[in-house]
Structure formats: structure tokens, C-alpha cells
UniProtKB/TrEMBL annotation:
SUPFAM superfamilies: alpha/beta-Hydrolases. This is Alpha/beta hydrolase. It comes from the Bacteria. The keyword Hydrolase applies. Gene3D superfamilies: alpha/beta hydrolase. Residues 29-249 form the Serine aminopeptidase S33 domain. InterPro entries: AB_hydrolase_fold (IPR029058), Hydrolase_4 (IPR022742). Keywords: Hydrolase. The keyword Cytoplasm does not apply.
Amino acid sequence: MTWDQYYIQKNKKKIFCNQWIYSKSALNIIITHTPIVSTTDFQSVYEPLTNYPVNIFAFDFSGTGCSQSDGHLTRSSILSDLDAVIAYIEEEYSERIFLYGTTGIGGIFAQYYVQARNNVKGFAQFACLSYGEMKGMGYPRFLVKLLCPLLQAIPNFKFTMKPPEYTGYHAELDEAMYVKMVRGRTDFWKTDSKFLLALLEMAVHKDSMLQKELRVPTLVFKTMHDRYFSPAHFDNYYNHLTCSKKMIEIDDVHNSYSIHCESFCKEVYDWFRSID
């Protein structure tokens, strides 16, 4: 078996998918990631899942990576992209569909979809977001509410959005991941303003799907030394979940999803297998 690059076509979209097929009837795992590069650049993060009897579908959101679309990434395009990926899997493989959101914002985007649709069998996430709660990420709510209409009104533009400084536990390991990703990419930290808008609207917009109940069995990874999220941020989110749930504490840094990718993938597979 090898990785196969495939385009899922829906209307005017061509969604780039990096897929690994074990069998027609195998458990299917969709991977979402932070859309700053293509999914193939993050392949090492989810590749340990190939050690298990599963099909893997890691894709680029439309308007990002290798996917093709007329527009920019938005909250609605995130929903329609995942709708298209799920429809493709149901048609070609089976309805045993699970979702793993990884590499930070990929977990939040996946969570947004699950709360909107509640149509997958199981969910696992690295990073989370509670509606109206921004303290865990370091952004005051009033500033976010001011930014959203401004970013909505003006054309998309590129701006530099680097990670916050971190000097704590395993800082050198955390930084090494970014050094590796930036190598050879002069514009790595250049981010679309519409990408930021989608994330901020999830947190504060009056019609955000994060206000809906999450009913899918959910696994939450809590990183104890995360430069983006405080431990309380994870606890607040997890404590308000009313679905079947499990939390795994990772005594390491934000980029531990890459540093310890084998352990993460094993926990994800075990969780999905337990509810399949």
C-alpha cells in the first residue's frame, strides 16, 4: 500500500486528498490540519495511523494547499468541504467515518464541523475552542468582536502571524518543529486575513455553530505546556461536553502532536476502535 493523491470534485471545487486505503470496508479516518501548508507537508504527523487497519483521508481545505476553489476559506466552505469528503467516502468505501483534527487549528475547524453536523461516528481533536471564550488563546473578546466586521468588509490580504514566544518546558523541541517547517519557505508565516476571520467568527459570531451541542463521542488531547492554550482552556471546554468523552493529558508542548506522533495516533485509533 502507498499514499495516493486524489482530487475530490464538488461543483467548482477540487479538494486535494492524500489517501491511504487499507480496504473497502475498513474504518475511515478523515484528517484535518492547520491550513498553512498542504496536507502532504504534515504527513509525518498522521502517518503512524498506517500501522492500523484503517483508511486515511487527509485533505486541504478549499482555497488552501493544493486544493482549488474560486473563493477563500470561510466557515461555510469548511462545512461544505467536509460534506464533500464524507460523501465521497460513503460512496466509495463505507459509513464507518471518524474525524481527527490535528496540528492546532485543524482541531478547531474539525470541531466546528462536528458541532454543526454531528454526522461522524467518533471525533478526536488536538486544540479546541469554546464559544465566546478567548482567554485561553490570549485574545480579548472585545478585540475579536471589533476585528470580525472589519476583516469581513475589506478584501483578503496577507499578513505575518507568528506564534507567541515560548521559553518554558521543552522549548527547544517546540521551536525545532517550526524551524523545520519554515526551512525553504520564505512566506511560511504569511496568513490570509480571511483565514483569520473564519477562526475568529467561530468564537464570537452570533450564528457560530460552536453554540450547538456536540453529540459525537469525543477524545480531547490536553497539552500541559502549550504556547497557545492554557490548561484551563482545555478544562473549560472538556467540562462542558455532554457527549461520551475522554481526555488525555500530554505533559509536553504544543508541537507534541508531531514529536510524539506515534502515541497520538495510537490513542486516536484506540478511541475510534472502542466506539466503532
